[in-house]
Amino acid sequence: MSVEIHRVTPADTALLDRIAEDVFDRRIDPALLAGYLAAPGHLMVVATADGVVIGQARGMVHNQPDEPTHLYVDNLGVTPARQREGVARRMMRELFAWAREHGCAAFWVATETDNGPARGLYASLGGEGEAMMFYEADL
């Protein structure tokens, strides 16, 4: 089954009408989706097969005052039934192409230390891992 990669724009939200299991962490909220797609420097890439979203990757241009512009990979997911087929790699390459169009010099991403498949993917794309802590709190 052929896989297509799409850059999602506000006009393309119908692409998200049919989504395979475990592609996103939660159900998509239309208002949050609209805000994400409208935000400058944000991109969602999806992989589809037979009209069903089987993967997604999201990134944003991360500007800093003391370092070159980077792509921050915000999230990536592929339905378990289609993992290990190169879908994630293809979506990442599309994010990288978009990032270069926006002047990014490098990418960064965080993943869990026990997520072997993700760590393998990011290392194969040239990423170098380092141990760190992640903090999260309600505002």
Verbal overview:
This protein has 139 residues and is of the alpha+beta class. The protein is built from 3 helices and 5 strands. It has helices spanning 30-38, 87-101, 116-124, and strands at 4-8, 42-49, 52-62, 70-78, 106-108. Strands 1-2-3-4-5 form a 5-stranded mixed beta sheet, with helices on both faces. Helix 2 links the parallel strand 4 and strand 5 (106-108). It starts with a strand and ends in a 15-residue tail after the last helix. 20% of the residues are buried. The model has no long low-confidence stretch (mean pLDDT 90).
List keywords for this structure.
five-stranded mixed beta sheet; alpha+beta; 139 residues; 3 helices; Aminopeptidase; globular; single chain; 24% helix
Structural class: alpha+beta
CATH architecture: 3-Layer(aba) Sandwich
Spatial extent as radius of gyration = 15 Å
Instruction: Just give the CATH class.
Output: Alpha Beta
Rounded to the nearest angstrom, the distance between the terminal CA atoms is 44 Å
- CATH fold description: Aminopeptidase
Shape summary? globular
Major beta sheet summary: 5 strands, mixed
Strand residue percentage = 25-35%
- Give the CATH superfamily: Gcn5-related N-acetyltransferase (GNAT)
The total beta strand count reads: 5
How confident is the prediction overall: mean pLDDT?
90
